[in-house]
Specification:
Elements: H1 2-6, H2 13-26, H3 30-52, H4 55-67, H5 69-73, H6 82-104, H7 122-133, H8 136-147, H9 152-159, H10 163-182
Helix pairs in contact: 2-3, 3-4, 3-6, 3-8, 4-6, 7-10, 8-9, 8-10, 9-10
Length: 185
């Protein structure tokens, strides 16, 4: 039976299952949503963490994405990869959270407590700290362009800025990163 199902026009059983999960999630099926979460949750969390800079905000972003997923899937046109579309949705939710946090001037509890992290190499930790120290506007462009691989046009669209503004912000972010790392911050 599996051989017959996978013998179609280049469509694997995994792809069919994934499409079934998308349709199920569109209809609000909790099992389908759970399956999509298992498949994409970790990657979306990493993106949200890179954009927001805190584990709590990243968790909230991923939660908000999956709570709103059945409604958002109504607008999903199935062009391009589903994972790419889901990352764009996550980036938008994370950026909205940053705007809200900035307006409220929120300070996380982690920012006030000493942390005990697993040992990391010094350069990676310095780079992560420097990226986290960037202003939200610069960090967002840097993460979307250099870490996630979006084009300047896509970054501009996600952030509601021009392609040129994306380029300028990336340049400023890189200059600040270099300075922070050279100063041994």
């Amino acid at each position: 039976m599996q051989a017959a199902a996978s013998g179609g026009a280049g469509t694997s059983i995994d792809q069919i299952d994934h499409l079934d999960h998308i349709e199920g999630a569109r209809a609000g099926d909790p099992e389908a949503l759970a399956s999509l979460y298992r498949a994409h949750g970790a990657a979306l969390y990493r993106l949200a963490y890179r954009l927001t800079g805190t584990p709590q905000d990243a968790e909230d972003v991923v939660h908000d994405v999956f709570v709103g997923l059945p409604e958002a899937l109504g607008r999903y046109e199935e062009r391009g990869s589903f994972a790419g579309w889901l990352k764009r949705v996550t980036a938008r939710v994370a950026l909205m959270r940053l705007r809200t946090r900035t307006r409220r001037r929120e300070v996380t509890l982690d920012a006030t407590l000493p942390t005990v992290d697993r040992p990391a190499d010094v350069e990676s930790e310095a780079l992560r700290s420097a990226i986290d120290a960037l202003p939200d506007q610069l960090r967002s462009v840097l993460v979307l362009k250099e870490v996630e691989g979006y084009s300047h046009a896509e970054v501009g669209e996600l952030l509601g800025i021009s392609e040129g503004a994306s380029r300028v912000r990336l340049n400023r972010a890189m200059k600040r990163l270099r300075k922070m790392l050279e100063d041994g911050r």
